[in-house]
Amino acid sequence: MQDRSTSATPSPVPPGSTANRELFHVIAQALDVPPPATVRDELTYFRCVRDRARVVLATMARLSSDREADDLDIMAAAVSIREQLSDFPCDGYDHAVSGSGSSC
């Protein structure tokens, strides 16, 4: 993946981890959206999930199409997803009380 055009330089893989593990962790954070508290909040919840899933899918499509992607490319993809998620916070609705530890 030659296009490493994220605004932040990807960090090296943390000790004891792998680039794939870091990417998987970011994807899980992106898609772990707290459920809505009421039916009234469902539409906003679904939009949040949709927008976050689009970020993940677009990044994964780019990454999977590059047969030469290395650990730096994978870490750049993780950084890209993390940065783009700030555009789609899940604070526009009331969250159901749960102990799931959602990332939003």
Features:
single chain; about 100 residues; 3 helices; mainly alpha
Explain this structure.
The two termini are 29 Å apart. The model has no long low-confidence stretch (mean pLDDT 88). With 104 residues, the chain is mostly helical. The longest helix has 23 residues. The chain has a domain of 46 residues.
pLDDT < 50 runs, ≥5 residues: none
Structural class computed from helices and strand pairing? mainly alpha
> Largest sheet, described in full?
none
- The H-and-E topology, N to C, reads as HHH
Distance between termini?
A: 29 Å
Query: How confident overall, as mean pLDDT?
Result: 88
Fraction of residues in β-strands: under 5%
Number of strands: 0
Alpha plus pi helix count: 3
What best-fitting shape do the alpha-carbon axes yield? elongated
Task: Tell me the Rg in angstroms.
Answer: 15 Å
Quick summary of this structure?
The chain has helices at 19-31, 42-64, 71-85. By secondary structure, the chain is mainly α.
